[in-house]
Every structure is written in structure tokens, then in C-alpha cells.
């Protein structure tokens, strides 16, 4: 049995460890690419949201590499995501992959422990002895997911300061390889230091005071660089600090009901949308308010074309929040037709817009960053963020 | 109307936009609100002006029914500046373990930020959290009514709503029934019975099928082609008792969109026992409808297996009459030829058979 | 011949001039501007096969124009900037000093003429934009994302279908008494609806006016959605020649719509202004290759990267005159090849 799962940016490292820790064989699909998207688009319903098409393409790729068991997360409502697994299985069958199994991983509420069933199904064992392995698998998974989150945080900050374009990207790729190979608890425990050291080795220009942008949106689109046209890297290379609290770890912890950052965001969004309506709608609103209050220069909201919850978020931000908080925002709705060129133009124009806004702010408030000190944005990310933020402070 | 203001107490004036859930719950709302001593104002049937207004205020990626809702709300407010409330319900779930589409969940939130909208009369139906009678009590509070009065009103409304449903199951069409409800007339089937030599099942959200403006009076066109039309509302209740398992082997996944669940349940009957009862299925979808984009894919694949003719019509504010007619006519003609080749009698008066039990 | 440009480029004692180039999807624009912001000369061309060919053709025409007017020989190009969708490639080819998006360029140019402008509408050949300014800075903008329904190409196509020269399109629209209503999110829908109306016997004038209305409505619902369009409103881009569209905009917005003098050259003009400010600020020596760019040969080659499953097609432009030096390279998704060294 060969297990596989769809791509979501660098998170293959975490998913892989979840199954290898159960002594199962895993095949990681190729990073989402043009070929995969082409296949996904060809076999998917025309008007379905983009992540469906992308993940279907990943599955076909994984099957061709030999996988026969595919794991797909599901949710029970209210958006389309919950249906992915079943419709994709149906489509794969009709494509002729008759003996493929798509195993749903119910993540609607992780404290209901439906995921144990998935692990049982995947490992094919239900006896008590396997449970110690489950615990190991989950611990490894959470640890790696957390470390991936840390890498993402550091990456967002460092790229804006690098002297040689591409250094950060190289360091991140090396770190992913290292993290994939780190398979003992000791290594994982010390991995934070590795991240810090590796990032510290990048040649950076600490005197810069880059623009600061918050990023949020639908999770697959926000994390998978191929489908979002490498938004994070492009921003960073334009010299923008990217702050994105959305990550796999953030989501999983939220589903364990332990994510206090998200609870804070929910609190902020409460007057506008009082409940979770699927996707990231509520948290996008929360992030927008939070970032506006923290004095950011801009906000980017990315989502799949026609995504139901995110379109609602967009409606509310444009019609209401934008007028209250006045934080520049740009929306990117991605589908298979998204073109590089228009995307770049918009991004650059947005950059100029933010720059002009900051210049005006500096003029009107003389103490604004007067001594070259960068404000540390306090609510965000906790300990690791603060350690990383220290590394980029000017001496 | 005969009912005048009782005493010197002011009667609230509440507006209901004729869109979205109107086509599904209007009799219930009307009874409920009237029992709570409220004057109801209904917005006019959708017209070009309303659609345009809605398109101006709704984002391009929204589906057309929601845009019409925007337009209806704005029209309502424009026509009745003295409204006390606009009735914008929040339907989260009506059956445990199910949801409505996210756009319904956030409907009051997006409506209340429109310009010049008066106070919103909140009615949250969320049986995951609390029963509907609680929703009714909350509704009563906003109108200054006590608990008993609200619960009483809810019971009456529910009884009336059941009666309405029974009428539909006897073969009444929704548009006809809504007209009766609006004029406070008793439920009675029209004398002229609609008969055709073909029988189609018409699927889709009520607000797509029964909004005659946006779907270019689709049902009437089918009637003119000699087709008898069945909608989900006309099917007996027992079909909708058992949930449809979308993923037979996984076993975990239930269909969590209530309306799509009903569609799948109806289809389940016609895929199996009821296979011979209909000649074709038409699914009316609005562009950018999230749930339907997936469900129609599943239905289409099922239809291929059993060989039922299936037509999917995607409509939006730009649907042209000519294109729609061409498609309907050719589909009807195709089905009719097929029946002829199979040597089947025209249906004319045959009554549809529903097998009770099991 | 070449001396002309050489002189223009290097000799001192001449007045400063700044060149702005806007190579878009349908046409390319060149504006030569002096220090005071006066347009000295300009070139407007339909695009040739590739941006490189367009840039070269434009340069050749600019050189001819300069040679024809003795006054212009007293100027020297100090700096050159590029904008439009092919801005980076053009910058590499002509040796530009600055590349900026057309949104910024349009805004800057419009502000130089109407300092208090608050809304800029721009409809070009393939794309349309809206720019919102408040207190002299851009606070919001949008570009068309879905399709080309609201752009010049669409009008061109429909004019050809109706057998009317595009120049007369506006006059027809202005003559109409009751514009018919034409549906149109998408060119295909609009066209089929239009044929339908034509078959139904409506006059050409009414159909064209309806088309203008539909284009404006489309633009408002697509690009202008959720934006507050305050006066003064400036309308530019190729479509702003069309009187019918101007009227339709005025009807829709309920206010006057200004069309600037250089309505199609605004992008290039803005770039010239931007590059002038850049020159004043930095005073660096220009990278501009001179007007003889039109004689330089550029070779475009492609290869497949093959380092990952994407197998991106990398395009590179070489200059055979300088030992095949690579001057531009693009096409990789990961950005690996974007660096030239």
C-alpha cells in the first residue's frame, strides 16, 4: 500500500511524517505543476472552486507515481470543501482508476477524534498496541507543522531584508529538506535553533524599513505557491515584510479548540459576522481589523474564484471595514486562468500605493519611525516571532 | 385588509424581499408574522430594474439569486420609506447536521451594511444550537411580544406551513400556492389540469425555479412544449426521510447542504424504483452557485449510469431568451423521439406512482 | 543617421528631454517631454509581432520625427522609462532607467494636468482600469479580471461586424434616440444578443448606443464595483475617443467626464514625468541605448528548464553585437532564471 495526499505548499513534510511514523509507505506528489493543473481542470466540474481542480491534479500525479490510497481532509459544511473527497473519488473511478481508495480525514472538530478512525483505516490495525504509534505520529505531525509555521514566519520577515535576491528561498528549501530528514524527537526539539541559525546566516540589510503587509485568505490558495503565483515570494522580493499567521499548524490547533489567536480574531470580527460561515471568512475579517490597528501598510486577501465564504468576506470588507479602518487592501481571486502579467502589475501598483501612503504618514507624523527602529507587532505569533524579529532589528 | 390597528398600539410594518428563501418559507413567515400582529409588505416580483440594481451592489462573483436579493431589498426600501423592519432571516440549519449555503449564513451581515437599510428583523434558524420555537421567541422579543404569544404564533405558523406542504404534495404548483397564500385564499387546485405527454423532473433551488423573471418563465415554456413538470415540492414526504450517503464506502460523509440533500433524495427515488416514472431531468443552476456545481456533477454521473436524459441549464443575469428556447426545444424533442423509438405510449393522464413504505 | 541619436544622447549644452514608452497589449506609445512637462513629440503605433519589434519600430519613427524637426535637435534624452505590460522587456531592450506599472504612470500623467483629480477611468485595447485618488495619492485601483468585454478590442470587433469604421462609432451612438438594451458580461453573450437585436430590426444607431451603454455598465459592475467615483472624473485610453462612450459614462455617473488632450498617450507621458523626477532626484547617467536601438539586432531564444516537473519555458533575449550578452530572461515560475548572472 502506498499512501499519498494532495499538495499544500511545504506542508507535505508534516503529512509525510504522519504516515511514515505509522511505518507506512508514502509517496509525495510532485509539487503542483502545470501538468497537474491541466489534468485537474480537464476532469473537474467546470464551476467548482480552484483547490478542487488543483488537488485532483495532485492525486492523478500521485497515482501515476504508484499511490493507491489517497488521504483527503473533509469538513462537514457549510462550504464545498466537505465534498471534495467523495466527488474526487467518483471522478477518479470514472477516469479508470478503479481500485483507488480515497480515505476521508474528518477534521471538522479534532476533539471528536474522528481522525483516529482514519488512522485505523490507513494503518489497517485497530489493536491497542498501535495506539502508541498513533501518539507518536500525531506528535511528530504537530511538531513538524509547528516548525513549518516557524519557517513561514521567518521567511516572511527575512526576505524583505536580504541583500542577495533568492537567499531566503534557498535557505527555506534547505530547511525543508532538513526537517524532512529529522525523525527523532531530539532533532525536532533542537530544530528551532537550526531555523534561527540558518536564517541568521543570510546576509541582510538591517537598516531597511520595509512595508508591512498582512496576508490571509482561503487556506489552500494561501499556502500553495503554484496556485497563488508565488505571492509570498514575489512580495518579499519586492521588499515587503509578509505577515501571515494562517498555516497548517494554525488551522490544526484551531480545530483542537486551542488557538487563542483565532479566538481573538473571532472577537474582532463578531460585530460583522457573528459565526463561522466556512472558509476563512471570519478570520479574514479579524485579521484585517487586527492588522489595521497594528499599523500595517496593506492587506492582501487571496481566495479561489467564486469561493462562497471568501466572497462574503470581501463584500463586508469593501462595503464596511475598508471605510472604518482605511487599510489598503487588494483582492486576488485565483483560478486556472490567472495570468502572471496582470498579477504582477497589480502587485506593483499596490506596492506604489502603499509606499505613497506611508510617505504621507511619515510627513504628517514626524515621530513615525523617526529613529529607524522598527515597531514589533506585539500580538502576533508569540515567542518565536519575537526572537526572529530581534534578528532583523538594526543595531 | 380587514385587519385594522388594534387599539392605539402601533402595528409594525415589516418588509419581506421576494427572493431567496421567500420561495420556500413565505407561507410560514407570513403566518408567523401576522400572528405576531405585524403588517407585511412584500417587494414586487423580480423585474429588470431590480436585477440591475442588485448587480450594481453585488460583486461579480456572487450568484445571481443573491444579487436579486440585494435588488429586492433596495427596491423594498425605496418603495416603502416608512418600513420599521426588513425581514432578513438567517437560516443556518433546519435539520441537525445540515447547513445552508454560506451565503445564507451571512445574509443579514451583508444586507445590514447596504446603504439606507432600516433595522433588520432577525430570525435565526439554527437547530444545531436551539429549536425553532426559540427563534420565534427571539423574533417576538424584537416586536415586543411575550413568550407565550410567540410560541403560539409559531405553532399556528407551523400548522399552516404543513397544510401548505400537503397541498403541494397533492400536486399544487408552488407559484400558484404562493399566490393563494398572498391573497389569503384557501388552498385549492386549479380547475385546469396541466397534462403533457412527457414528464420531467425539474431540479434546482426554489428561488431559481420559481422566480419567473430570472429563469424566463421556464416552467411555462415547458408546459407549452407539452411537458408535465414535477418539482421536489410535489414529491411525497417519505422520500426525504433517509439521508443520502454521498460516499458509500467512507460512510462518514453526509450531504450537509439541506437543499442539495433534498435534490439527491428525490433523485435517489427516480434512479431506482421511480426510474420509469419520468422521462428526463432538468437541473437549473445559477452561475457561481457553489453547492450545485458539485451536486450537478454527481447527478450527471448517476444519470449516465441509468440512462436518464439530463439537461443542465446555467443561468445568470445575461441569459438570453433565444438560447434558452433552443436548448429546451431540442431537449424535449430528443426525449420525445427516444420515447417513440422505444415504443412507449405518451403519458397523458397516467398518474405518477409512489411506492409507500421501505 | 546615427549621429543624430548620438548627439541627442551625450552632447552637453543641450536642453534635457525625457522619453516615456508605454508598450501595451494592442498599441505602443512614445512621448518625448522636456523638463517643464511639455510634450515635444510623440509616436503612436499598433503593435508589431513582439514588444521588441514594436519598440524598435517606435524608435525608428521617433528618430524620423526628430530629424524632421530641427528644433528637436537641441534636446538630449537624459533618461528613459517604460511602462505597460511589456515594461521589463522594453526596459531591457531600449535600456530604460525605470519601469513602473501603467497604473502609476496614468495617475501621474493625469495629476500633472488636473491636480485635483479624484477618479481616473482608463479603457484601452485589451484592458480597463480604474484609479481612485484622494489627497493626491492613489488609494485604490482595479483592473479588469474576467474578460475583454469592456475594452477597445471588443468595440473594434463589433464595429467591423456592423460594417462601420471605428472612428465613426461614436457619432452613430450620439445620434441615437433610444438605445436598445444589450446584455453583456461576456463578448460572446453580447455579440449573440446584438445579432438578435439586429435581426429584430433595430437601427444601427440604437444598437451602437446600446453597445456603449452595455460596455459602461459592464465596466462599472466589473472594475468600478464598490468604489466611490467622485468628481472630477478623467477618462482616457483609446476608447476615450469614442463620444458615445463618453456620453454613456456621463449618463451613468451623473457628472461631467473630462477627456485629457493626450488621452491615448497618458501612460507614456506619465512615465516621462516619473523618469524626469527620477533623474532630478538621482541624477544618474542613463542606461538608454539611444535611438539607434531600432538598428540593433536582438535574438530571442527559448529553452525548457527541466529542473522541476513544471518544465517552464524560459525565454531569453540576447544581443549578438555584444557577444550574445543576455539582456532579459523570463518565464520561470520559481524565479530561478530571473537573475541575469
Oligomer: heterotrimer
Count of discrete structural domains of chain B: 2
The H/E string of chain B reads EHEHHEHHEHHHEHHEHEHEH
* CATH topology description of the largest domain in chain C: Nucleotidyltransferase, domain 5
Strand-residue fraction of chain B? Answer: 5-15%
Using the coordinates above, name the CATH class of the largest domain in chain B.
Alpha Beta
Order of helices and strands of chain C: HEEEHEHEHEEEHHHHEHEHEEE
Largest sheet of chain C: 5 strands, mixed
| Span between termini of chain B | 47 Å
How many discrete structural domains of chain C? 3
Report the total helices of chain B. Answer: 13
- Class inferred from helices and paired strands of chain C: alpha/beta
Binned, the helix content of chain B reads 40-55%
Annotated CATH topology of the largest domain in chain B: Rossmann fold
Mean of residue pLDDT of chain B? Answer: 84
- Please tell me how large the radius of gyration of chain C is: 22 Å
Largest sheet features of chain B = 4 strands, parallel
Number of strands of chain C: 13
The outline of chain B comes out as: globular
Topology:
The complex is a heterotrimer of chains A (395), B (358) and C (341).
Chain A (H helix, E strand, L loop, with lengths): L1 E3 L7 H9 L4 E2 L7 H10 L6 H15 L4 E6 L9 H11 L6 E6 L7 H10 L6 H29 L8 H15 L3 H16 L10 E7 L1 H5 L7 H7 L2 E4 L4 H8 L4 H10 L11 H13 L4 E7 L3 H18 L3 E6 L5 H25 L18 H9 L4
Parallel strand pairs in A: 1-2, 1-3, 3-4, 5-6, 5-7, 7-8
Chain B lengths: L11 E5 L5 H14 L2 E5 L5 H10 L6 H16 L5 E9 L8 H4 L1 H5 L8 E7 L5 H11 L4 H23 L4 H9 L15 E6 L2 H4 L8 H7 L2 E5 L26 H14 L8 E7 L3 H17 L3 E6 L5 H21 L17
Parallel strand pairs in B: 1-2, 1-3, 3-4, 5-6, 5-7, 7-8
Helix pairs in contact in B: 1-7, 1-8, 2-3, 6-7, 11-12
Chain C lengths: L1 H9 L4 E9 L3 E8 L4 E8 L4 H18 L6 E9 L3 H8 L3 E2 L2 H12 L5 E5 L4 E7 L2 E7 L8 H11 L6 H7 L11 H13 L4 H19 L10 E4 L6 H11 L3 E2 L7 H17 L16 E6 L8 E7 L5 E6 L11
Parallel strand pairs in C: 1-4, 4-5, 6-9, 9-10
Antiparallel strand pairs in C: 1-2, 2-3, 6-7, 7-8, 11-12, 12-13
Helix pairs in contact in C: 2-3, 4-10, 6-8, 6-9, 8-9
Amino acid at each position: 500500500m502506498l499512501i499519498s495526499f494532495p499538495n499544500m505548499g511545504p506542508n507535505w513534510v508534516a503529512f509525510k511524517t504522519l504516515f511514515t511514523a505509522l511505518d507506512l509507505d508514502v509517496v509525495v506528489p510532485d509539487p503542483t505543476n502545470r501538468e497537474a493543473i491541466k489534468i485537474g481542470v480537464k476532469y473537474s466540474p467546470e464551476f467548482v472552486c480552484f483547490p478542487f481542480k488543483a488537488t485532483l491534479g495532485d492525486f492523478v500525479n500521485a497515482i501515476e507515481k504508484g499511490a493507491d490510497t489517497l488521504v483527503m481532509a473533509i469538513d462537514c459544511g457549510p462550504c464545498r470543501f466537505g465534498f471534495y473527497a467523495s466527488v474526487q473519488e467518483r471522478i477518479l473511478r470514472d477516469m479508470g482508476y478503479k481500485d483507488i481508495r480515497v480515505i476521508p480525514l474528518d477534521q471538522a472538530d479534532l476533539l471528536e477524534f474522528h481522525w483516529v478512525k482514519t488512522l485505523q483505516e490507513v494503518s489497517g490495525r485497530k489493536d491497542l498496541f498501535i495506539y502508541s504509534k498513533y501518539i507518536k505520529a500525531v506528535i511528530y505531525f504537530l511538531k513538524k507543522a509547528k516548525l513549518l509555521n516557524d519557517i513561514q514566519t521567518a521567511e516572511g520577515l527575512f526576505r524583505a531584508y536580504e541583500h542577495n535576491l533568492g537567499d531566503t528561498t534557498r535557505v527555506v528549501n534547505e530547511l525543508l529538506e532538513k526537517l524532512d530528514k529529522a525523525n527523532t524527537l531530539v532533532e525536532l526539539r533542537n530544530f528551532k535553533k537550526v531555523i534561527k541559525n540558518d536564517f541568521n546566516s543570510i546576509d541582510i540589510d538591517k537598516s531597511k524599513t520595509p512595508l508591512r503587509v498582512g496576508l490571509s485568505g482561503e487556506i489552500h490558495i494561501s499556502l500553495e505557491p503554484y496556485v497563488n503565483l508565488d505571492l509570498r515570494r514575489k512580495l518579499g522580493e519586492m521588499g515587503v515584510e509578509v505577515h501571515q499567521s494562517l498555516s497548517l499548524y494554525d488551522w490544526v490547533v484551531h480545530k483542537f479548540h486551542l488557538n487563542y489567536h483565532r479566538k481573538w480574531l473571532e472577537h474582532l470580527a463578531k460585530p460583522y459576522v457573528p459565526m463561522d460561515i466556512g472558509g476563512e471568512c471570519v478570520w479574514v475579517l479579524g485579521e484585517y481589523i487586527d492588522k489595521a490597528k497594528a499599523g500595517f501598510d496593506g492587506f492582501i486577501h487571496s481566495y479561489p474564484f467564486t469561493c462562497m465564504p471568501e466572497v462574503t468576506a470581501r463584500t463586508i470588507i469593501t462595503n464596511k471595514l475598508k471605510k472604518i479602518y482605511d487599510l489598503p487592501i487588494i483582492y486576488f481571486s485565483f483560478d486556472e486562468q490567472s495570468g502572471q502579467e496582470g498579477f504582477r502589475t497589480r502587485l506593483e501598483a499596490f506596492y506604489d500605493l502603499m509606499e505613497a501612503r506611508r510617505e504621507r504618514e511619515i510627513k504628517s507624523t514626524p515621530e513615525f519611525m523617526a529613529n529607524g527602529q522598527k515597531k514589533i507587532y506585539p500580538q502576533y505569533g508569540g515567542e518565536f516571532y519575537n526572537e526572529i524579529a530581534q534578528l532583523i532589528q538594526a543595531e | 385588509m380587514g385587519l385594522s390597528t388594534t387599539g392605539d398600539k402601533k402595528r409594525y410594518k415589516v418588509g419581506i424581499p421576494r427572493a431567496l428563501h421567500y420561495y420556500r418559507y413565505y407561507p410560514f413567515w407570513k403566518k408567523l408574522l401576522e400572528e405576531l400582529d405585524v403588517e407585511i409588505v412584500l417587494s414586487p416580483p423580480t423585474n429588470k430594474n431590480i436585477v440591475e440594481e442588485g448587480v450594481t451592489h453585488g460583486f461579480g462573483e456572487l450568484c445571481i439569486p443573491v444579487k436579486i436579493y440585494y435588488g429586492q431589498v433596495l427596491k423594498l426600501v425605496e418603495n416603502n420609506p416608512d418600513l420599521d423592519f426588513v425581514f432578513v432571516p438567517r437560516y443556518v440549519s433546519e435539520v441537525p447536521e445540515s447547513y445552508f449555503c454560506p451565503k445564507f449564513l451571512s445574509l443579514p451581515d451583508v444586507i445590514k451594511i447596504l446603504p439606507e437599510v432600516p433595522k433588520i428583523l432577525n430570525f435565526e434558524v439554527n437547530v444545531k444550537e436551539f429549536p425553532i420555537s426559540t427563534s420565534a421567541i427571539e423574533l417576538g422579543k424584537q416586536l415586543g411580544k411575550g413568550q407565550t404569544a410567540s410560541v403560539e404564533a409559531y405553532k399556528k405558523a407551523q400548522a399552516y406551513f404543513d397544510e401548505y406542504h400537503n397541498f403541494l404534495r397533492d400536486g399544487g404548483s408552488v407559484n400558484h400556492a404562493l399566490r393563494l397564500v398572498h391573497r389569503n385564499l384557501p388552498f385549492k387546485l386549479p380547475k385546469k389540469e396541466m397534462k403533457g405527454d412527457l414528464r420531467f423532473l425539474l431540479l434546482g433551488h426554489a428561488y431559481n425555479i420559481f422566480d419567473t423573471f430570472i429563469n424566463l418563465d421556464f416552467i411555462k415554456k415547458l408546459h407549452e412544449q407539452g411537458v408535465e413538470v414535477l418539482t421536489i415540492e410535489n414529491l411525497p414526504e417519505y422520500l426525504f426521510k433517509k439521508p443520502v450517503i454521498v460516499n458509500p464506502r467512507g460512510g462518514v460523509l453526509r450531504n450537509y447542504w439541506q437543499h442539495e440533500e433534498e435534490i439527491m433524495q428525490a433523485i435517489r427515488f427516480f434512479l431506482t424504483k421511480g426510474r420509469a416514472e419520468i422521462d428526463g431531468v432538468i437541473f437549473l443552476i445559477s452561475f457561481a452557485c457553489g453547492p450545485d456545481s458539485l451536486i450537478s456533477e454527481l447527478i450527471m454521473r448517476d444519470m449516465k449510469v441509468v440512462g436518464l436524459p439530463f439537461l443542465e441549464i446555467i443561468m445568470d443575469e445575461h441569459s438570453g431568451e433565444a438560447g434558452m428556447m433552443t436548448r429546451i426545444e431540442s431537449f424535449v424533442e430528443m426525449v420525445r423521439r427516444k420515447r417513440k423509438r422505444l415504443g412507449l405510449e405518451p403519458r397523458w393522464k397516467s398518474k405518477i406512482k409512489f411506492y409507500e413504505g421501505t | 543617421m546615427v549621429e543624430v541619436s548620438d548627439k541627442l544622447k551625450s552632447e552637453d549644452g543641450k536642453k534635457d528631454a525625457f522619453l516615456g514608452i508605454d508598450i501595451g497589449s494592442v498599441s505602443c506609445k512614445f512621448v518625448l517631454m522636456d523638463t517643464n512637462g511639455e510634450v515635444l513629440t510623440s509616436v503612436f503605433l499598433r503593435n508589431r509581432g513582439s514588444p521588441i519589434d514594436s519598440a524598435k519600430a517606435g524608435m525608428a519613427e521617433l528618430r524620423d520625427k526628430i530629424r524632421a524637426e530641427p528644433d528637436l535637435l537641441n534636446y538630449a534624452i537624459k533618461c528613459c522609462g517604460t511602462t505597460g505590460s511589456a515594461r521589463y522587456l522594453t526596459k531591457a531592450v531600449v535600456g530604460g532607467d525605470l519601469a513602473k506599472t501603467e497604473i502609476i504612470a496614468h495617475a501621474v500623467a493625469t495629476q500633472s494636468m488636473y491636480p485635483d483629480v479624484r477618479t481616473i477611468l482608463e479603457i484601452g485595447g485589451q484592458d480597463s482600469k480604474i484609479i481612485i485618488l484622494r489627497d493626491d495619492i492613489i488609494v485604490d485601483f482595479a483592473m479588469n479580471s474576467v474578460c475583454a468585454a469592456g475594452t477597445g478590442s471588443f468595440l473594434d470587433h463589433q464595429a467591423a461586424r456592423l460594417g462601420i469604421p471605428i472612428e465613426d462609432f461614436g457619432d452613430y451612438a450620439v445620434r441615437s434616440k433610444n438605445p436598445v438594451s444589450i446584455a453583456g458580461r461576456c463578448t460572446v453573450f453580447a455579440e449573440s444578443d446584438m445579432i438578435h437585436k439586429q435581426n429584430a430590426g433595430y437601427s444601427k444607431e440604437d444598437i451602437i448606443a446600446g453597445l456603449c451603454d452595455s460596455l459602461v455598465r459592464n465596466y462599472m459592475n466589473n472594475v468600478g464595483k464598490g468604489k466611490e467615483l467622485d468628481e472630477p472624473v478623467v477618462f482616457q485610453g483609446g476608447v476615450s475617443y469614442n463620444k458615445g462612450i463618453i456620453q454613456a459614462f456621463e449618463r451613468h455617473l451623473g457628472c461631467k467626464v473630462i477627456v485629457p488632450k493626450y488621452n491615448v498617450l497618458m501612460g507614456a507621458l506619465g512615465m516621462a514625468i516619473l523618469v524626469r523626477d527620477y533623474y532630478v532626484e538621482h541624477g544618474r547617467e542613463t542606461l538608454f541605448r539611444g535611438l539607434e536601438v531600432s538598428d540593433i539586432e536582438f535574438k530571442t531564444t527559448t529553452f525548457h528548464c527541466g529542473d522541476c516537473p513544471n518544465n517552464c519555458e524560459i525565454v531569453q533575449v540576447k544581443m549578438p553585437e555584444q557577444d550574445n550578452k543576455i539582456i532579459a530572461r523570463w518565464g520561470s515560475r520559481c524565479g530561478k532564471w530571473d537573475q541575469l548572472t
